[in-house]
Amino acid sequence: MDAVLRAAVVYFVLLILFRIAGRRTLSEMTAFDFVLLLMIGEATQQALLGEDFSVTNAALIIATLLFIDVMVSLIKARSKLFEKIVDGAPTIIVENGRPLHDRMRKARVDEEDVMEAARRLQGIERMDQIKYAVLEVSGGITVIPRKEP
What we know:
Keywords: Cell membrane, Membrane, Transmembrane, Transmembrane helix
Protein name: DUF421 domain-containing protein
Structural class: alpha+beta
InterPro entries: DUF421, UPF0702_alpha/beta_dom_sf, YetF_N
Strand order of the largest sheet: 2-1-3-4
Pfam family, one: DUF421
Transmembrane segments: 6-22, 55-75
């Protein structure tokens, strides 16, 4: 019966804390958001299964992690420099049909990745049909096609 009560308490604590922290869609989740969820999952697991970890301790850890995450997002909203340091910046990897190999190598993206995004998003078949390809902060590739004369 103790496990059921602990699970219910942890559920409601998480529900309240995530409502306070605000909403984010999964499609906009960053890699660090995923890591944060893993850390919260570990703290939750310790509260549910741990022998010497209390629900109160887990709630405190989770609340601290969410508080820090909310504070970082508020600072990012006020400081573009801080946002760039934390999240990075979009990178142009193809310009006027020419792959920028140094940037692509640094981002660990190859021409096939760009062409896959170009086909999927714009129906583009050749590299020379791309005006710009941008590696976004989220890790996705945005393709802007060239205007046909």
